[in-house]
Amino acid sequence: MPALPASARLPLGSVIARVFLPFALGYFLSYLYRSVNAVISPYLRTDVGLEAADLGLLTSAYFLAFALAQLPIGVALDRMGPRLVEAFLLLFATAGAVLFAVGQDTATLVAGRALIGLGVAACLMSALKSMTQWFPLEKLPLVNGIVVASGGLGALAATAPTELIVDAVGWRPVFWGLAAVTLACAVILVVVVPEKRREGAHESLIDSLRTLGAIFRSRAFWRIAPAVAMNQGGFMAIQGLWAGPWLRDVAGLSKPEAASVLLLTAAAMVGGQLGLGIVAERAGRVGVKPLTVFAVGMGLFITAEALLALGVVSLTVPLWIAFGFFGTVGILCYAVLSRQFSAALAGRTNTSLNLTMFAAAFAFQWGMGAIIGQWPQDAAGAYPPAAYSAAIGTVVVLQTLAWGWLIVSGWRERA
In 3-state terms, what secondary structure has residue 204? Predict the structure, then answer.
C-alpha cells in the first residue's frame, strides 16, 4: 500500500473503519491474552499438573517479554510507524498461541506465553501513536479513552464468556481460535490500515537510544514511575491470574461464580478507564492536579487490596469492583509524565514507564505464586486463605512504600 502524505486526511468513517477498529482489535486481544489465565488456571492445574509457583512463572512470562520489548518498541514506533511494528509483532503472538495450545509441559507453556507477551507488546502504544496521526488533537482524549476501554472489553471477554467456551470445548481449542484471530488482525493491519509518509529529518538510531538515558536520569520520571509500577504491576498480576484462585480458594466460589465476579471486576475496570479520566478533567477545572487524583485513587486501591489480603469474604463483590475501578488509576500518569518531556519523546517516555510497570507485574505475579506455594494444597487442590493473605499482603506493603514516596517527594518539590 503506497504511503499517503503526512498532511493527508480521510473521512471520519474511513478513519474509524480503517484505523481505529484494527488497532482497537489488537488491544482487545492484548488484554484478553493478559487476563485469560485467571479463568483457565484450574484447568492448567488439572491437565498439566501445575503448582502455584509454576502457574505464577507461566503466566508472568507474558509480562517479562512485554517489559523487555518496550524500549525497542518505543524506538521502532518513532522510526517505522505503528502499522508495520504491530503487524510484525502479532505474528509472534500467533505463534505463541499455537505453542500454548499444543503445550504439554511447563517449559512449552512458558515459551508460548512469552511469545504472546512479545507479540502484543506494541498494541496499546501503536494504537495511541496511530490515533495522533489520524484524529484531530481535540478528539484525542476521547479517542484514546475508547481505545483503552477496548482493552477492558478484552478483559471482560476473558471472564465468564471464556469460562463458558472453555467448559464447552476445552482451553486448547480456545487458544487455536485466538491464534487465528490474532493472525487475521496482523493481516488487517497490513492490508487495511493506511500508512502516512513521514517528512523531514529524523533522529539517528544512536540519538534515539541516547534520549532514553535522559528519561531514566530524570527526577520527574523517578518520582512517578515507582508508584505507577507498583500500582499497575500489582493490579495486572492479581487481575490477570490470582483473582480467580482467590475467589475459588478463599471465598469458596465455584468456577462459574468466580468467572461472574471476574466479569464484574473487568466491567469496573472499563468504568475506571473511562470514569477516572473524566474525574481528573473535572478536578482540573477547580485546580486539582491529575497527580493528586492518582494519589487518592491509589490510596483507595491499596485499601481494597488490604481488605482482600485480610480475607474479608463478606464484601467479596464490592471489594473486587473497587479493585477493578481504582486499579486503572495509573493510566492518568501517562499524560502527567508526557508533559515533563518534549513531544518528540512522548512515545519513548510512555514505553519507559511501561517497562517499569510490566517488570513489576512479572515480579509480582511470579513472586505471589512462590509465596502461595509455601502452603500445602488440600485434597481438592485449594490453597489456604493464609497463603493468599501473605502474597497479597506483600504486594500491599510494597505499594504503600511507593505511594509514600510519591507523596513525600511531592512535598519536597514544593518545599
Answer: coil
DSSP, collapsed to helix, strand or coil, labels residue 36 as coil
How high is the pLDDT of residue 314?
96
Phi/psi of residue 364, nearest 5 degrees? -65, -50
How far is 109 from 111, CA to CA, in rounded Å?
Answer: 5
Q: Which of 222, 291, 273, 218 lies closest to 31 in space, CA to CA?
A: 273
Q: Is 340 exposed, middle or buried (0-12, 13-18, 19+ CB in 10 A)?
A: middle
- Enter the DSSP assignment of 139: G
Angle at 325 between CA 322 and CA 329, to 5 degrees: 120
> Which residues contact residue 103 at a Cβ distance below 8 angstroms, ignoring those fewer than 6 apart?
48, 109, 111, 112
Distance between first and last Cα of the chain: 56
Alpha-helical segments (H) within 36-105: 37-48, 52-80, 82-102
pLDDT in tens, 168-226: 999 999 999 999 999 999 999 999 999 876 544 466 667 666 777 888 888 888 999 99
Q: How many CB atoms lie within 10 A of CB 326?
A: 25
Q: Which of 375, 378, 253, 271 is nearest to 323 (CA)?
A: 271
191 — phi, psi (to 5°)?
A: -85, -35
Q: Which residue has the cell 506465553?
A: 113
Mind giving me the DSSP string for 177-191? HHHHHHHHHHHHHHH
Any idea what DSSP says for residue 313?
Answer: G
The 10s digit of each residue's pLDDT in 287-337 is 888 889 999 999 999 999 999 999 999 999 999 999 999 998 988 887 777
Q: For the chain, list residues with pLDDT below 50.
A: 199-201, 415
Contacts of 200 (CB under 8 A, 6+ apart): none
What span, in angstroms and rounded, lies between the C-alpha atoms of 388 and 395? 11
Between the CA of residue 108 and those of 37, 97, 121, 362, 372, what are the distances in Å? Answer: 15, 11, 20, 18, 23
